[in-house]
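Quick question, first post here. What does this chain look like in 3D?
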Amino acid sequence: MNKNIPYELIRSSRKTLAIQISADGSVTVRAPMRCRKADVEAFVREKSGWIVRTQEELGRRVREREEKKEQLPKWSREDYERHQRLAVQVLGQRTAYYAQKMGIIYGKITIRDQKTRWGSCSAKGNLNYNWRLILAPEEVLDYVVVHELAHRREMNHSDRFWSLVEEVLPDYKRRRSWLKKNGDMLMER
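> Answer (accepted):
Ran it through. Tokens below.
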């Protein structure tokens, strides 16, 4: 493909060339400090087919998401408030249940309105959850709860961390997959 592709060039101490395509379709090329501009241009030309296909796929996903978003029923402020109250109740109950099952102590629970995160666990043991979890299937909500509680033992995503999650939810990968696949739609709320 012989298309001129605009891109941002970022040089660093890395050893290889790499291309990143953002959600908006913009292209960033990461290159070693001493890499010649001609080599960068050749690399972008060589990868241009993949770049264009990826940009088209991203555009298709954005259009698809917008169509789905238009089909969602409109919510009133009371709808949001009702779901947030329900999230406080349900996430509190599920956290208490799994914490006891896992033998884990936690601090306070905060329900947040976040656009990019489902949950987090602070070093002090406080748990934060996105209220939109209440819109997910219960098994997915439980996965996020167990995930955050497992961070009380392992503040990372090591093999030991995933083993803790798997002890409680042997099918956690299926639940996590659902969230990765469908989570964007829940975030549209």
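Strands lie at 8-12, 18-21, 27-32, 109-112, 119-121, 127-130.
The chain has a mean pLDDT of 92.
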